[in-house]
């Protein structure tokens, strides 16, 4: 029997991208709710309880509600929302972080899919902390450029409106309260003593993300050079397929934030010299930042090849 899969929130940005990746697969049975009942709680409850895997592509409150509707002990969730990312009963869905993360996801009934900006930050910082290169109390800073699809249907409509504010042509800094909703998972997953100073920046392009972490090498134990840090990260991710460390300094003297649009893998680019290092995670906010990562987690949970249906 094929595993039964349901996407709750299929008409949203993340849901549609998951559907795109699963629609033609013959190794699963995708069950589809009637369009006019997609927000009907009783109907959603039936679908949730009939599925082996449920993707939640919903606002946080609706994601919590969906989990509460589940009475089937065999139903397994992959939640794309922020609702459960630091919840102790949920496993964080970033398999490349460690063998323990991958093993936990494979058998988990509750997987929290990482936030997009958080994926960029954590892909750099988790291994650096684990390897002892960055102490947990180091004062980290990060800027993160994103395409507007990261804000879902509402932000897409705002950016694609013919009568939009003409200032949307320029990049805009947001998260000015310094309380961005991804900070708890960045801090928790990396085991940091304090949240990083985090500056998200929204650009006038549909999808793509470049999250840059900045380091003063002399403040790190043993004062490693940027090349040393590159070598450690390259070694850490050497066996991974969907996270790749690029040659030192990257392939060009500049980094375009939409380079990975349409792909499900993530590239890390390390630049710098003796004094300073930057590590940039380059990926698609809808790929490794959301739907691609969610499908990778599903593959792992069902025992399929992790990259089935994904674009490297
Ligand atoms: N966009 C991105 O890059 C990323 C998004 N996420 C997260 O994924 C989740 C979904 O985001 P995104 O796809 O961008 O958001 P969208 O707004 O594009 O989609 C959300 C979908 O959920 C539907 N919905 C809302 N309430 C309910 C309900 N009670 N029952 C059923 N369906 C409901 C909406 O319906 P309607 O169409 O009528 O509005 C919409 O189709 C969010 O939690 C978001 O934070 C995570 C990582 C990245
Ligand atoms: C451009 C934009 O607004 N992006 C969203 C993050 C999108 C994302 O990762 O969503 P969740 O954490 O909700 O899953 C933001 O910065 O709040």
> Radius of gyration in whole Å, from Cα?
19 Å
Question: What hetero molecules are bound to the protein chains?
Answer: NADPH dihydro-nicotinamide-adenine-dinucleotide phosphate, N-acetyl-L-glutamyl 5-phosphate
The share of residues in extended strands comes to 15-25%
**Low-pLDDT residue intervals, each spanning 5 or more residues:** none
> What is the typical, i.e. mean, pLDDT?
98
Shape: globular
Indicate how many domains the architecture comprises.
Answer: 2
How many separate helices? 9
The CATH architecture assignment of the largest domain turns out to be 2-Layer Sandwich
Number of strands: 13
Look up the CATH topology of the largest domain: Dihydrodipicolinate Reductase, domain 2
Strand order of the largest sheet: 8-9-7-10-13-12-11
Sheet/helix structural class? alpha/beta
Subcellular location: Cytoplasm
Protein name: N-acetyl-gamma-glutamyl-phosphate reductase
Pathway: Amino-acid biosynthesis; L-arginine biosynthesis; N(2)-acetyl-L-ornithine from L-glutamate: step 3/4
Function: Catalyzes the NADPH-dependent reduction of N-acetyl-5-glutamyl phosphate to yield N-acetyl-L-glutamate 5-semialdehyde.
């Amino acid at each position: 029997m094929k595993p039964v899969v349901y996407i709750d929130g299929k008409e949203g940005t993340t849901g549609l991208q998951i559907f795109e990746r699963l629609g033609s697969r013959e190794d699963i049975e995708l069950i589809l709710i009637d369009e006019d009942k997609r927000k009907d709680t009783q109907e959603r409850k039936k679908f949730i309880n009939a599925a082996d895997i449920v993707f939640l592509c919903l606002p946080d409150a609706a994601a919590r509600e969906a989990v509460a509707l589940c009475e089937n002990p065999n139903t397994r969730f992959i939640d794309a929302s922020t609702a459960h990312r630091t919840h102790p009963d949920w496993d964080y869905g970033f398999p490349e972080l460690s063998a323990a993360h991958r093993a936990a996801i494979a058998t988990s009934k509750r997987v929290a899919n990482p936030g997009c900006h958080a994926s960029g930050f954590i892909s750099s910082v988790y291994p650096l902390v684990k390897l002892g290169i960055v102490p947990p109390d180091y004062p980290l800073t990060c800027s993160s450029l994103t395409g507007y699809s990261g804000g879902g249907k509402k932000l897409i409509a705002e950016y694609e409106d013919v009568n939009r504010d003409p200032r949307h042509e320029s990049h805009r800094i947001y998260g000015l309260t310094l309380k961005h909703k991804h900070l708890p998972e960045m801090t928790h997953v990396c085991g940091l003593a304090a949240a990083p100073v985090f500056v998200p920046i929204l650009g006038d392009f549909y999808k793509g993300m470049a999250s840059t972490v900045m380091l003063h090498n002399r403040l790190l134990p043993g004062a490693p050079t940027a090349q040393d840090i590159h070598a450690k990260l390259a070694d850490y991710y050497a066996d991974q397929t969907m996270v790749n460390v690029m040659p030192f300094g990257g392939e060009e003297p500049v980094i375009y934030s939409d380079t990975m649009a349409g792909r499900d893998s993530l590239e890390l680019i390390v630049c710098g010299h003796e004094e300073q290092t930057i590590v940039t995670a380059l990926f698609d906010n809808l790929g490794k930042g959301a739907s691609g990562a969610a499908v990778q987690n599903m593959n792992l949970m069902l025992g399929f090849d992790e990259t089935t249906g994904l674009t490297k």
